[in-house]
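Shipment paperwork, digital attachment
Item: protein structure file
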Amino acid sequence: MDFKTKGRRMANQEHVALLDRGVDVWNEWRERHPQLHPDLDGINLSGTDLHGVDFADAALNGADLRGANLSRAILIRASLKEANLRDCDCRRANFYKTVLGKAYLAGANLSDSVLIEANLIEVNLEGSVLHKAVLRRAVLGKSILVRSSLLSADLHRVFASRADFSRADLREADFYKANLNRTVLFGANLREAVLSGANLREADLREADLYKATLHKANLFRANLNGADLREAVFIEADLREAELQNTNLGDAVLIRASLSDY
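Attachment content:
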């Protein structure tokens, strides 16, 4: 494979040499030495087939993984800070508790991947695909998910304050008790999404499609819902105080015990 390294800090060349011998040899070595934490910082793996590779606890900070095949890869507790994973195939990969701060994942396919408790702060996921991905308790603060697709994704208790989901496809996504404080959801498709108990305080939901969405006990204090489609949405016990609702379609919406004012 002849992998080369680049970046501020060089990878361990012995580890690079082992990976150069192929995924099967690498995984066998990992099984024999589970206590070791591979050092692959700055390695260039762009366009490489790494299907099923075991990168658990590995350091891949600043690595170049553009267009690589990481489907079914194990990246549990790995560190990929500032790594480049543009257009990477990460379907069914396991990123449990992985650190991806400021990583570049635009156009990546993360369908059916596990990102539970992953650190995705300031990550660029523009145009990425995360169909049915599991992001429970993941941290997405200030991340970019413009035009990304999270169809039926599990985002229970995700922290996505100030993230940008503009024009994202979030149909049937589950944001139960998610923190979406000041999050941008402009023009997002949230049809039949679950936002029960979510914190949407001061969120930008202009022109968002919330048809049949569930917002039971959601906090929408001062949220901007101008031009949004809220037909048949459920707002039981939701907090809509000071929310902006100009040109909003509330046809057949359920507003039982919802708070619309301080009185």
